[in-house]
Amino acid sequence: MIMKRKIQPKSEPVVPAELLEQAKRSVSPDLLTKAAKCSVCGADNVIASSEPLCWVCRRLKISAWREMEQQIPIQE
Ligand SMILES: [Zn+2]
User: Fold this and answer.
1) Is the distance from CB of 52 to CB of 41 less than 8 angstroms?
2) What are the start-end ranges of the H helices in 27-75?
3) Ligand 1 mean position to 31 CA, how many Å?
4) Exposure of 43 by Cβ count < 10 A (0-12 exposed, 13-18 middle, 19+ buried)?
5) How much distance in Å is there from the Cα of 46 to the middle of ligand 1?
6) Which residues, listed in sequence order, are joined to residue 47 by a DSSP beta bridge?
7) 0.70 exceeded by the pTM?
8) 54 C-alpha vs ligand 1 centroid, how far in Å?
9) Which of 12, 29, 33, 37 has the most CB atoms around its CB within 10 Å?
10) Which residues pair with 54 in a beta bridge?
């Protein structure tokens, strides 16, 4: 029995090499690092969204929102 899994090369790459190179050139590495910093704690693992927040700060923010909503009494 052959246990090794052969990696089958695909006939066509998912992204053409030329397009990849163009994308790399068009995006400045400085801009990328700036955008990838959390605005609260400065962490690198920022989730791409409208706000530059890492997943930790994002979770804290969301949980804070939920607590505020729970504390507001429902008035009818
Ligand atoms: Zn953060």
Assistant:
1) no
2) 29-35, 55-71
3) 18
4) middle
5) 7
6) 53
7) no
8) 4
9) 37
10) 46
For the segment 23-51, the average pLDDT, to the nearest whole number, is 74
Residue 41 has pLDDT above 90, yes or no: yes
Burial class for 54, CB neighbours closer than 10 Å (0-12, 13-18, 19+): buried
Q: For the CA atoms of 16, 22, 23, 25, what is the dihedral angle to 10 degrees?
A: 150
Indicate if the alpha-carbon torsion angle 48, 50, 54, 57 is positive or negative.
negative
Tokens of 3: 């246990």
* Predicted pLDDT at 2: 67
46 strand-pairing partners? 54
Q: How far apart are CA 30 and CA 45, in angstroms?
A: 16
